[in-house]
Specification:
Number of helices: 6
Strand content: 5-15%
Distance between the termini: 102 Å
Helix content: 40-55%
Radius of gyration: 29 Å
Oligomer: single chain
Mean pLDDT: 74
Shape: elongated
Low-confidence stretches: 1-5, 154-162, 182-201
Number of strands: 6
């Protein structure tokens, strides 16, 4: 005879348990799931606990594997952002900073536009905001992965030099923020590309 269980096996209850698990895997918060199912916050957690007790270990491992794959995909997307060069754009144009004037490669003469003004040479201003946002996403993904795989156990493991690592990360983020707020020097131009260059007469 199969062992008795204190959990209800009504079809609607079983369906709710599965729905709670599915939504948690998709990253829903407890309050969101409770509203979706029309139950209390406490009942929502109870259904989840019952589902985790009833489900076999293989299914739990499969759910963990799928969640880790989802986190891997998210992390790859974030790294694409970090590997991409970002520049400041205002009013649809790339913002540039003055670095000199254009010169003819053969004569070294200053190139001038149709108004006889020197053609300004600029470089795009880097935009650190997407980088900082990507770093924040990586930290959140790492936190989610740690909880999923039981790395946030009650026993705290002291890693050698972890205080120095935290300090280095904080310094890196502070340096990025400082670079983003640097005052722009005079001569800052927008790279419009509208003026045509021609050698000086």
């Amino acid at each position: 005879m199969a062992p008795r269980t204190r959990f209800q096996r009504k079809p609607e209850t079983v369906e709710r348990r599965q729905r709670v698990v599915d939504l948690r895997i998709r990253g829903w918060q407890w309050t969101q799931i409770a509203i979706e199912l029309g139950v209390s916050y406490q009942r929502c957690q109870q259904l989840y606990d019952e589902a985790m007790t009833l489900v076999n270990r293989a299914s739990v491992e499969k759910a963990r594997e799928l969640e880790n794959m989802r986190l891997d995909a998210m992390e790859m997307s974030v790294w694409k952002v970090l590997d991409t060069a970002h520049v400041v754009i205002q009013q649809g144009k790339i913002v540039g900073i003055y670095v000199g004037v254009e010169r003819d490669p053969e004569t070294n003469e200053v190139l001038r536009d149709h108004n006889d003004k020197p053609v300004i040479r600029t470089e795009p201003v880097p935009d650190d905001a997407p980088v900082l946002q990507a770093v924040d996403r990586l930290l959140r993904i790492a936190d989610r992965r740690a909880k999923l795989n039981g790395l946030d156990a009650s026993i705290k493991i002291k890693l050698e030099g972890d205080d120095d690592l935290d300090t280095d990360i904080e310094k890196m983020i502070a340096d990025l923020s400082q670079n983003d707020n640097l005052a722009q020097p005079e001569g800052r131009e927008e790279l419009s590309g509208s003026d045509s260059a021609q050698p000086a007469r």
